[in-house]
Amino acid sequence: MPIVKNVSRAVNQLLQSSGCGCGISVVPVRRIGISPRQVASDASFHSVSFSRSDHPRVLITGGLGQLGVGLAKLLRKRFGKNNVILSDIRKPADNVFYSGPFIYSDILDYKNLREIVVNNRITWLFHYSALLSAVGEANVPLARAVNITGLHNVLDIAAEHNLRLFVPSTIGAFGPTSPRDPTPDLCIQRPRTIYGVSKVHAELMGEYYHYRYGLDFRCLRYPGIISADSQPGGGTTDYAVQIFHDAIKTGKFQCNLKPDTRLPMMYIDDCLKATLEVMEAPAEALSMRTYNISAMSFSPEELAQEVQKHVPELQVTYSVDAVRQAIADSWPMNFDDSNARRDWGWKHDYDLPELVTTMFSFLGSDSRIAQAS
Ligand SMILES: NC(=O)C1=CN([C@@H]2O[C@H](COP(=O)(O)OP(=O)(O)OC[C@H]3O[C@@H](n4cnc5c(N)ncnc54)[C@H](O)[C@@H]3O)[C@@H](O)[C@H]2O)C=CC1
Ligand SMILES: CC(=O)[C@H](N)C(=O)O
User: Fold this and answer.
1) How many domains would you assign to the chain?
2) Long-range Cβ contact pairs of 277-282 (< 8 A, separation 24 or more)
3) Any idea which ligand is nearest the CA of 198?
């Protein structure tokens, strides 16, 4: 737990950072010098050698999921292959292992994570490890551990080592009492999943560490992300990826959400572009530390219609999964991302037709389309 050495100074800083205008003198938060946690390091670790440059040295946790490999690819192009380390508790596929540095890291192992950060002189951390909404409901204790305890480890290490920290949040951080169409950045957040609760916790803890310890915390609330070359990890929006695979493989798709369930969605390239942009944005441009980002919003029937333009014989049936449907019914239908657009120039590239065309060109649907015509 953080050790507060000087309570009155801390209170002054908090009051000042909340803009109370009380006329209290300010001590720069970054100079407090409080380490949120102190743990002696005793394990040996062979560090990955980095090229010497001004580039950030990056660690991605949970990097073998749907988003991490693509993020590593983008960051390696920008900062150099050896400046970006992917980590996870899973075994990487050959192509991932040989594409750049990979390290085993369980975010629940605080000392190991800290050693990786220290030995590799990490300066930016992208914290992707998580259990998503549907798998989280199926294993609440594990979701609580990974999404909340793991986040605490990451926050403390990031604050202690002065890292720039990116933690993704989600449309799932809102709940049935939030305005759903559209959902603004700042509104009531009472999610009803452990995933959502843990993400609201992450947003609040990250912002608290920012104001209290000067942690350079940056957070985007992602919509459901759609990708061709990586599989989703057990979320409510997974249907919007599966439909493409099933359309090509079998020409039949059984959707686990009702046809009119509208949710915000985004193509992975837009998601990763936004992530890099917000990390590179000058701190002065950020009027907030947690932003909604948005690209499109559609329902299963609207997606199916667009997919059928490419695979006309696709048959879609509906077999509703009660857990996923209840989750989706509590989430935003449209996301208001005007603050991201104003503050750091966020702009998406992919709407629904471009998304569908791009997915099929990646997945090589030509044979199916040819068969159909
Ligand atoms: N994919 C999506 O549609 C969205 C994703 N996000 C967020 O983006 C981040 C990345 O998402 P995805 O790649 O889709 O997730 P994913 O579920 O595909 O991957 C998560 C990764 O975390 C790893 N992991 C689990 N326990 C771990 C532990 N103890 N230590 C280290 N790693 C562990 C898993 O092995 C997995 O590779 C997550 O934080 C997620 O909440 C937010 C909104 C939408
Ligand atoms: C929107 C998300 O956070 C994720 N894809 C999920 O459905 O759980």
Assistant:
1) 1
2) 277/344, 277/345, 277/346, 278/166, 278/218, 278/220, 278/340, 278/344, 278/346, 279/124, 279/126, 279/164, 279/166, 279/218, 281/218, 281/343, 281/344
3) 1
Q: Does residue 36 lie in a domain region?
A: no
- 329-355 pLDDT per residue, tens: 999 999 999 999 999 999 999 999 999
Containing structural domain, residue 138: 11-18+56-372
3-class secondary structure, 263:
strand
- Judge whether 116 lies within some domain: yes
CATH number of the CATH domain containing 283: 3.40.50.720
Q: What is the pTM of this model?
A: 0.89
Using the atom order of ligand 2, give the atom closest to the CA of residue 236. Answer: 7
239 is known as an active-site residue: no
Q: Please report whether residue 353 resides in a domain.
A: yes
Q: Is 230 a pocket residue for ligand 1 (Cβ < 6 Å)?
A: no
C-beta of 92 in contact with ligand 1 (< 6 A): no
Token code pair at residue 102 = 């990979």
Do the domain assignments include residue 50? no
Minimum-distance ligand 1 atom for the alpha carbon of 105: 31
At 61-97, the pLDDT tens digits run: 999 999 999 999 999 999 999 999 999 999 999 999 9
